[in-house]
Amino acid sequence: SFCTLLFPMVATSYVKVGRLVRIIRGPREDRIGVITDIIDANRVLVQNPTDEKMWKHVQNLKNISPIKFSVSIPKNASTKVISAALAEKKPLEKFAKTKLAGALSAKAALANSTDFERYQLRVAKRSRAHWARKIFAAKDEKTPVSYVASKLKKLTKPHEKFAAKNLKTRQERIKKHFTARKAAKKTTKK
Questions:
Q1: CB 50: neighbour CB atoms within 10 A?
Q2: 97-152, pLDDT tens digit by residue?
Q3: Which residues of the chain have pLDDT under 50?
């Protein structure tokens, strides 16, 4: 319908058997598993045969985040069936290419980094920001791109035009004044 074209549905990753999920907190935080069975309205059975720390265990629905990838497996499937389904569809490899997976790996890398590595990262970010500002300022000076520079250009253009016109008339008035003064001095001396 027209409304679904304008406003697409928000939730498309429903909790179902075969859905890949991310564990939000706890000892298995940020690990990926497959829902093998739905126990009740609050709990599911999760397992990932490719991860040694993700054996078949119960997870609360508040502690999992569904991912858009899923595999077709029967309810309460064995490890062998889940492994075969994961090998066939390769959803874990597809997930590894997503932005979420990149963010999770960056978070893990930052958590495992040393104090010196964090310092190096901070210095590199600062340097990158400095050079980005410098390059942008140089380009902005040539052709105004930023909001402030473009507004300033818009405001100064008519002002310069007006100032140049006023300056010309002012200079002419001053010249007239001094020539008149000189002429007055010459007439008073005679």
A1: 13
A2: 999 999 999 999 999 999 999 999 999 999 999 999 999 999 888 888 888 888 88
A3: 1
- pTM, whole model, 2 decimals? 0.62
* 139: helix, strand or coil: helix
Q: Which residue has the tokens 């000892």?
A: 27
Total number of residues shown for the chain:
190
Whole-number Å distance between alpha carbons of 42 and 124? 45
pLDDT number for residue 112? 93
Task: Identify the three-state secondary structure at position 170.
Answer: helix
Reference 21, options 57, 81, 68, 86; nearest CA is 68
- For residue 22, the cross-strand partners are 32, 65
Residue that has been written with the tokens 């008149």 in this structure: 180
Give me the DSSP letters along 57-115. EEEEGGGEEEEEEE----TT--HHHHHHHHHHH-HHHHHHTSHHHHHHHHHHHHHH--H
Number of Cβ within 10 Å of residue 55's Cβ equals 13
